[in-house]
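Interim report to the steering committee. The following record documents the input for Pyridoxine 5'-phosphate synthase (237 residues).
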Amino acid sequence: MTKLSVNINKVATIRNARGGNTPNLVQVAIDIQKFGGQGITIHPRPDERHIRYQDAYDLKPIVTTEYNIEGNPQDAFLDLVLQIKPTQVTLVPDAVDAITSNAGWDTVKHKDYLAEIISECKRNGIRTSIFVDPTLEMIEGAAQTGTDRIELYTEEFAKQYSLGNKKAIEPYADCAVLANKLGLGINAGHDLSLENIQFFAENIPGLLEVSIGHALISEALYLGLETVVQQYLEKLK
Ligand SMILES: CC(=O)[C@@H](O)[C@H](O)COP(=O)(O)O
Ligand SMILES: NCC(=O)COP(=O)(O)O
């Protein structure tokens, strides 16, 4: 079975818009787990535009499922991860000014750099995953770094699937077959949604975990809208 880790960056985006504590990120994480979520993912970025470094500490004692922290392993991020010791760290090569993650690692070019960080995280008992584009060369390279898992970067799949191009799954399926052969665990994420998740999961052998945030929170808003509008009308009667 594939585990669902809910990325709560977008909850922090809404909270930060008013400077207060609504919605309460910690309570949301508690409730997501209560509702069956099998993991919590956060992706603190250097400008703290959504998740703040302090959030990562506040979440630590309440995440009783799997705690996945994603980010570019610059010094401040790595210090944070080594102090918190989440279940998993996912290394993502984001530029500081990136709107969102937009590429996987070049695991061949950065093999030594990644290997060093991965071995330090593993020494500290943290499972490692590296964000990769779906090419066989990058999967081969990932295996050389010593990482426990890869996270397949699924934006292109999601885009093509929404256009009706189901063949876009093929490079992901081929990479999964290779990753399984090389002993790498397989995670996936970026723009996965209620529309595309079942097809993706059914076609990726050995898919261990998906992390989903942007679509899931948007869908939750939409699916909850009718209930909340009705509740306001009830109070205004
Ligand atoms: C690695 C990945 O695909 C997600 O973590 C994504 O980067 C979410 O980050 P934002 O919420 O900042 O877009
Ligand atoms: N690792 C991907 C993730 O955590 C969520 O990405 P998205 O669903 O917000 O695109």
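Strands lie at 3-7, 39-42, 67-71, 88-91, 127-132, 149-153, 185-189, 207-212. The committee is asked to note this result when reviewing the revised timeline.
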